[in-house]
Amino acid sequence: MLSSLLTEPDRLWTAAEVLARPSAAPPEPGVYGWHFDVAPHPDLPAKTLLYVGIAPRKMTTRSSTQHLRKRVRYHYRGNAEGSTLRLTLGCLLGLELRRVGSGKRMTFGKDGETRLTAWMAEHARVCWVQHPEPWSWETELIAQLDLPLNLDQNKHNPFHPQLTALRAQARQLARTLPIVG
Fold this sequence. Notes:
The chain is of the alpha+beta class. The chain has helices at 2-7, 15-19, 68-77, 84-92, 109-123, 135-144, 160-176, and strands at 30-36, 49-55, 98-100, 105-107, 124-130.
């Protein structure tokens, strides 16, 4: 079953392995799962699956160029504006969310994103399962598994209200702070 391939994977991949050229992550569609050897929050367990994502998202009006390699690499080295996982982890780790550029985008700024990337390189591990239509599994996985870092379709999770409030507070504070480079 797909869920056990994510909860008990044969292999967890590091940032170095995913970001290397060639990358361990395949350029194929699929479902990916994030495990952390250190919990990003005291109320969460360590060494277990905490988040799942899919690549590509189901597109009804245009085709997506996303696949496992692009998406997983972006989570490891992108920014909070383009990665809900990075936004969540940064908020849980107490990084300060800021408006950047024109002020419409929010990230943890250069220093915060660098700190988050380093934290993920040290503590985050990812696995994946290739699947031609990953969106067909997303709802079922979120309903079946305890995935406290997933917000979409996951209001039943006991951690959902706390995480939602924490992210909202971070955004509210960012709106009151000056825009950074």
